[in-house]
């Protein structure tokens, strides 16, 4: 479905087929806000649903930075030679020049993956990262997610449009809550996460790391 199709649906639902109330640019802004809203909801439930591809490559010995060719809004996982490495804080690294097999990573900017220790040999990496949102601008731009989510974006855009003309927003707020619940139900249907049997605080290592007291050699 293209942007022009979504605009047409919004106009139908807001009874503005004659373009008397809203310009295309205004509705487009509402639609982009709706896509952003849906993306954030999905990120909080199962970010894998927004994953386009797994980035792979080779990091030469002596190089500690992986520069992605895209801006990412979230990095879900980094693996070195097939093994997952932990996300760490750069403030806990005592010697940034230490060499060895990378055990952790941290993100700088919106695309640079910094691994530590610095690889002492060439390593293969794979990165699961969510590409930053691309705004819809041209009328023939394709909707960036599965078509089942179009209804929610249209509903969001209609609510935003109605909010510009009303002082009492209680009904719109209630509808928005219903939209969120429906999105959550749909995404959970596709949820790819397994069941976590153990509690998060089951190990002292986890607790110490989260409180920032862990130092990396």
Structure characterization notes:
Pfam families: SU10_adaptor. The chain is an alpha+beta fold and 217 residues long. The chain has 2 domains: 3-48 and 134-189, no CATH class; 50-131, no CATH class. 35% of the residues lie in helices and 21% in strands. Strands 1-9-3-4-6-7-2 form a 7-stranded mixed beta sheet, with no helix packed on it. Strands 5-8 form a two-stranded parallel ribbon. A hairpin with a 2-residue loop joins strand 3 and strand 4. The termini are far apart.
What's the helix and strand layout?
Layout: H1 3-13, H2 24-46, E1 54-59, E2 65-67, E3 72-80, E4 83-87, E5 99-100, E6 104-108, E7 112-116, E8 118-119, E9 123-131, H3 150-163, H4 170-189, H5 204-210
Helix pairs in contact: 1-2, 1-3, 2-3, 2-4, 3-4
Low-confidence runs = 200-204
Question: From the alpha-carbon coordinates, what is the Rg to the nearest angstrom?
Answer: 22 Å
What percent of the residues sit in helical stretches (DSSP H or I)? 25-40%
Alpha-beta content class:
alpha+beta
Strand order of the largest sheet: 1-9-3-4-6-7-2
User: Separation of termini?
Assistant: 52 Å
Query: How many structural domains can be distinguished in the coordinates?
Result: 2
Main β-sheet, in a few words?
7 strands, mixed
Count of extended strands: 9
Can you give keywords for this protein?
seven-stranded mixed beta sheet; elongated; two-stranded parallel sheet; alpha+beta; 2 domains; 5 helices; SU10_adaptor; 217 residues
